[in-house]
Amino acid sequence: MSLTNVRRVGKLAGILLGFAVSTLACSETPPPTPPAPTPPAVSIANPPIPVAPPAYDNICIQSQTDRVPVIMYHDVIAKRGKGSVWFDCTTEEFAQQMNWLVTQGAHVVSLDDLYKHLTSGDPLPDNAVVLTFDDNYQGFYDNAYPILKRLNYPSAMFVHTNFVGDKKSDHPKMDWDTLKKLDVEKLVTIGSHTQSHPDDMRKLPLDEQEKELSGAKEILERHMGHPVPYLAYPNGRQDNTTRDLARKTGYKMAFTIDNGPAEASPDILLVNRTIQTRLEKVWKECHDAKMYAPAAVAQFDLNPTPVKLEIAEFGGVRLGIVRGGSPTTHHSLVRQSVGQFITDVPGGVAGINGTFFADARINGADTTLIGPSQNPTDTTLVPDLAEDRLPRLINRPIVLWGPKKIAIVPFQPGTMNSPDPFKAFMPDYTELFLAGAWIVHAGVPRTTEEMEPFSAGDFSDPRRRAFFGITESGEIVLGASLDVVDTAKLATAAAAAGVKEAVLLDSGFSTSLCYNGKVMVSGHTSAGLASRAVPHAIVLTGTLEPPTDAEVLAAFDKADGMIIPPGAPGSETGPAPATTHHRRKKRKRTHTTKKSNTDAPADTPAPAPDSPSNP
Ligand SMILES: [Zn+2]
Questions:
Q1: Which pLDDT score is estimated for 362?
Q2: Does residue 395 sit in the same domain as residue 287?
Q3: Among residues 189, 197, 150, 146, which one has the least CA distance to residue 171?
Q4: pLDDT band, very low/low/confident/very high, at 438 (cuts 50, 70, 90)
Q5: Is-contact 58 415, C-beta < 8 A?
Q6: How confident is residue 44, by pLDDT bands cut at 50, 70 and 90?
Q7: Would you say residue 258 lies in a domain?
């Protein structure tokens, strides 16, 4: 289903199922408590009353369809003089910036619109941008507001209440009458900027922080006569304590001065904001972000068809492909062959190596996965705890699914290293992994240039590469290249094979595609070499539909078995392994390692980790 379709269906569902959708769509209003169920025939003293989970009110998965810049201004002055500071903006500069936004086709949206977008996924118009002003300057009213009014651009003013009406300094502040007038005219949202504008909230004792936050809110609400739910931290400075206090005192959304699109913010109470001198820069960053990583939430109904094998050329690349079945993921505490993973899963009929792992050295034993993961044996999401790695994982695709649906979304390290947003988005999801790069989106292969921010050192190396994909009808596609290719060529081939969306799996020596007991693609171009043992695999369960094509049948007959019986040649007691077999119980890691390192033929890619840990 295309994104547009997802939205369309979402809208329709919203009309039909207002209650259910408000629960799923992380609405700010908690859903009504469902009526208590009819007591069962068997008497129970205190039948449990089902309680709806609390509504998710943080930055939600659905908001990842956009990248919105939030701009921060301070005073807007007639002209620069003795008392002006570098972050002042002259009326002329401000007018130029607004004209520039007009020429860019910008749609300036309000804080309420931004909040609904971030927490409920409400779509915003194209080229949405938010304008905010700090410190309640009279210069806003005199110089900026007339321009904003003419353009009908909404904005926000963050007010430090102790200074309202202060006309003494070079930068006089608006008084309550002016603020009230702005509030009544509705184009400006009045927000809180604390009472006394402490230089650094983190340095204040808890009770003083609380007083600054709740005091300003109360005073503003008293003067405006309605709730004031938005806050900007003075100088953007805060920590977890300040953020939690802001939440506790009733703020729904708060702003820092960290650069970046709003959707990439680490919390709804820590929304990114960029100073106006970087307007054109952040505008471009947001547009680039959409190009480099699809700002999209691709979602499909799973459609488990019979499991079929294909070997054919797609887009000039020979691929081994397994289509159909129901996918499951598995994370093992020791590295093992894909064949072993398949054998361990009841009903497993095919599979492929999974995602990237932290230490991909051939002789490494580490099984830590890169990015958060959740497998059916995990009780909850396993976060990636490597703080230094997380920023490099931004916008890489997260694949998640449950019994009925599957989705791909760009990863945001601040909000998605926990299960909450995923539960709010797909309450029955059971598995999730972070892939190396989103290589096909909306049926279109992504180019080298588009994937560049996600490239590891070996992104363009020729190697056998693996992908996980899904077709428009919701059929799973596991693919691996029999030719050695770079990532862009794999993307072209995957799209030619009919996938709507596809992501890059660990590749090179890890590549291993198995079907019905046979290894159909291994990480080596020469026969007789085992793929690298891996800690993660995707296994398909379902009904096998045997191949009928003569060429596929011949390849299948010729292929090595994925498991070697104990004692047979290739087992730990026999000569060199002829397959991806890697006996888990014996942990003969060094066995595979030795063969892989020493027997690598000239056309086999170097054993560099094809890993996003070093993008
Ligand atoms: Zn300020």
A1: 76
A2: no
A3: 197
A4: very high
A5: yes
A6: very low
A7: yes
Give the C-alpha separation, 608 to 458, whole Å. 7
- Residue 135 Cα to ligand 1 middle (Å): 5
Q: What's the 136 CA to ligand 1 centre distance in angstroms?
A: 9
SS3 string of 422-490?
Answer: HHHHCCCCCEEEECCCEEEECCEECCHHHHHHHCCCCCCCCECCEEEEECCCCCEEEEEECCCECHHHH
Q: Is 45 contained in some domain?
A: no
Residue 594: inside a domain = yes
Instruction: Give yes or no: residues 262 and 380 share one domain.
Output: no
Residue written as token pair 């993008």: 615
Distance 233 CA to ligand 1 centre (A): 8
484-500: pLDDT as tens digits = 999 999 999 999 999 99
CB 590 within 8 A of CB 526: no
* Helix 176-185 vs helix 206-224: crossing angle, to nearest 10: 70
User: Distance of alpha carbon 379 from its chain centroid, rounded?
Assistant: 21
Residue 82 confidence (pLDDT): 86
Closest CA to 416 of 59, 120, 108, 84: 59
Task: Indicate whether 377 and 512 sit together in one domain.
Answer: yes
Q: State the distance from the centre of ligand 1 to the C-alpha of 197, rounded, in angstroms.
A: 6
556 lies in the same domain as 409 = yes
What's the confidence (pLDDT) of residue 453?
78
Q: Can you tell me the distance from the alpha carbon of 170 to that of 173, in angstroms, rounded to the nearest whole number?
A: 10
Cα 36 to middle of ligand 1, angstroms: 49
Is residue 276 located within the same domain as residue 387? no
Same domain, 504 and 477: yes
Which residue's structure tokens are 């045997």? 546
pTM comes to 0.83
Beta bridge partners, 34, equal none
* Domain that includes residue 454, residue range: 298-598
How many angstroms separate the alpha carbon of residue 85 from the centre of ligand 1? 13
What spacing in Å lies between the alpha carbon of 561 and ligand 1's midpoint? 68
Same domain, 571 and 456: yes
Q: Assign residue 138 the CATH number of its domain.
A: 3.20.20.370
Residue 606 lies in a domain: no
Q: What pLDDT score was predicted for residue 10? A: 35
β-strands 512-515, 348-353 pairing: antiparallel
Please name the residue that has the structure tokens 């797909």.
426
Residue 342 and residue 314 share a domain: yes
Overall domain count for the chain: 3
Q: How many residues does the chain have?
A: 615
Q: What is the pLDDT of residue 452?
A: 83
Give the end of a domain, one of 263, 292, 321: 292
Q: How far is the CA of 391 from the centre of ligand 1 (A)?
A: 28
CA of 160 to the centre of ligand 1 (A): 8
